[in-house]
Design brief:
The structure holds 2 protein chains of 2 kinds.
Chain A: E1 2-3, H1 7-12, E2 16-20, E3 23-28, H2 32-41, E4 43-47, E5 52-57, H3 59-66, E6 81-87, E7 93-103, E8 106-111, H4 116-124, E9 130-132, E10 137-143, H5 147-153, E11 167-172, E12 175-180, E13 189-195, H6 199-207, E14 212-214, H7 217-226, H8 260-269, E15 274-279, E16 291-294, E17 297-308, E18 313-320, E19 330-333, E20 338-342
Parallel strand pairs in A: 1-3, 4-14
Antiparallel strand pairs in A: 2-3, 4-10, 5-8, 5-9, 6-7, 7-8, 10-13, 11-12, 12-13, 15-18, 15-20, 16-17, 16-19, 17-18, 19-20
Helix pairs in contact in A: 2-7
Chain B: E1 17-18, E2 23-28, E3 31-36, H1 38-44, E4 47-51, E5 58-59, E6 64-70, E7 74-78, E8 83-88, H2 91-94, H3 98-101, E9 110-113, H4 117-121, H5 126-134
Antiparallel strand pairs in B: 1-2, 2-3, 3-9, 4-6, 5-8, 6-7, 8-9
Classes of the chains: A alpha+beta, B alpha+beta.
């Protein structure tokens, strides 16, 4: 297993370590529920150094990148971030990603650990000006309603005015760090991208503060599920298209990109499954892979499921036949036919991520 | 994949008997009390739901009697001994975290009438269970 630059920190904290896409990462430190609730009420720090990062420099590199993704990066205002995905020729999702427009002629792109080799092939093979920087880049997420205070205490002054889904290069103790107001929890939060060598120093600065605690992949998963964020490789893979993964509004139909033909055909044909949040109304949780039924007939599948600590019930994400994919439709799922209701998104509505500053 | 933490390895209570499914049984006053072990709760993480059997239901040894769910997983619960359910721990309905806090006391699951003494005698004692747990591939 690959180790992040923070592996020794996790070991010294007695974290429970798991294999996540070939990376040894902490699934929990003191307990998933506790870490989840602490993120919703205070702030947590997450090691996300396993994720993929790319830099694109120059107008040509940006244009070539644009042909690989469903979004139109040339339309992202400088300083803003936009969600997107890279598809195969059949319209299936190789990975999802976030594109940061750092300047007129520079993009910074964040992807996932699982499909990194095939994504790198797509982004960098024929693209001078494209640079794959995952293996020299560490990422620490600071997430929670008090995260801004911690950023300011640590000397990240840019956090004072950074708006939701914006990012900026900052200089911290003489080092370049990319600071973005993004995250995977539904709370006010930041992602910090830095050189591997800097990771322990940044980690220690935050870990030494009162009110912030380390959190693992387990809490990251329950937090994102409660607010309806998909997980690459779990909620979708190469057999699922953006239309079946709830990404309709992120498709730039007026641009040309790999997989567009198949996607247009599916859009025009209709009748595809829809991606929806679901809830059980009880403490029972739906689980990944559970079949969903209506009157005994299979109508969809649970793609993510867990107990939602902030909502106190089982929550998840699912792909459902179109006619059932509306809020309040009641279905059943799993070997014990537990009740499952289609929910509005997000299920947890109190998140602080969009708070105005 | 549990990370070894020497301080977390506890000696299991001597007065209980244990199963390979990480359940424990206490025999007291003609009643079997059943729960899951601290090893099980460490593996499961935060328990979020316990499905209980019906009071009055009868089970043979090894029958599936319920489910315990955590944030990450769901596992079946089996009858470690045969018998009729006399009581279930209603507190777990709203406070399943008791199972993590106190697996051998407040976090008990259900009680059975103690008729199947041969089943009980066949279970592991604390020492045998500890050896069994240590032999598992984490």
């Amino acid at each position: 297993m690959q180790k992040t630059p923070l592996y020794k920190k996790h070991q010294s904290l007695n974290a429970k370590i798991v294999d996540f896409n070939g990376w040894a990462l902490p699934v929990q430190f003191d307990g998933i529920v506790q870490e989840h609730l602490h993120t919703r009420t205070a702030a947590s720090m997450f090691d996300c150094s396993h994720m993929g990062e790319y830099r694109f420099k120059g107008a040509d590199a940006i244009e070539r990148f644009g042909r690989e993704v469903i979004s139109d990066p040339s339309k992202i205002p400088v300083g803003r971030c936009r969600y997107g995905a890279v598809l195969n020729e059949s319209g299936g999702i190789l990975d999802d990603l976030i594109t940061f427009r750092m300047s007129e002629d520079e993009l910074y792109v964040v992807t996932n650990a699982g499909p990194i080799e095939s994504v790198t092939e797509r982004f960098c093979a024929d693209n001078q000006g494209a640079e794959h920087v995952s293996y020299e880049t560490a990422k620490i997420d600071i997430q929670g309603p008090s995260s801004r205070n911690h950023l300011l205490s640590a000397g990240f002054e840019a956090a004072q005015s950074l708006k939701y889904f914006n990012s900026v290069w900052t200089t911290w103790r003489g080092h370049e760090i990319l600071l973005s107001r993004t995250g995977y929890t539904g709370e006010l939060g930041y992602e910090l991208f830095m050189a591997n060598e800097l990771a322990e120093e940044v980690w220690d600065v935050f870990h030494g503060m009162d009110g912030i605690l380390p959190a693992g992949l387990g809490a990251r998963d329950t937090l994102r599920t409660e607010v309806g964020y998909a997980l690459s490789g779990q909620d979708f893979d190469e057999t699922v298209t953006p239309l079946e993964a709830g990404m309709d509004s992120f498709v730039a139909w007026n641009t040309d990109f790999v997989g567009k033909g198949a996607l247009e055909a599916q859009r025009d044909r209709g009748g595809f499954q829809r991606f929806v949040p679901v809830r059980t109304g009880s403490r029972r949780a739906p689980r990944h892979g559970f079949e969903i039924k209506s009157d005994g007939e299979a109508v969809g599948v649970v793609t993510s499921g867990t107990f939602g600590p902030s909502v106190g019930e089982g929550v998840g994400l699912a792909r459902l036949d179109e006619k059932y994919a509306s809020p309040d439709v009641v279905l059943t799922t799993g070997p014990k036919d537990i009740r499952l209701e289609v929910a509005e998104t997000p299920i947890y509505k109190e998140g602080s991520c969009r708070v105005k500053i | 994949m549990r990370k070894e933490n020497p301080e977390a390895v506890s000696t299991f209570p001597e007065d209980l008997r244990y199963t390979k499914d990480h359940e424990w049984v206490r025999l007291d006053g003609g009643v079997y009390t059943v729960g899951i072990t601290s090893h099980a709760t460490e593996q499961l993480g935060d328990v979020t739901y316990v499905e209980m059997p019906e009071v009055g239901a009868e089970f043979g040894v090894g029958d599936e009697v319920g489910t315990v769910e955590s944030v990450k997983a769901a596992s079946d619960v089996y009858a470690p001994v045969g018998g009729q359910v006399t009581e279930v721990n209603g507190e777990l309905e709203d406070a399943p975290e008791r199972v993590n806090e106190s697996p051998f006391e407040a976090g008990w699951f259900f009680k059975l009438d103690a008729s199947a003494l041969a089943d009980f005698d066949a279970l592991m004692n604390a020492g045998a269970y500890e050896t069994f747990v240590q032999g598992l591939d984490h």
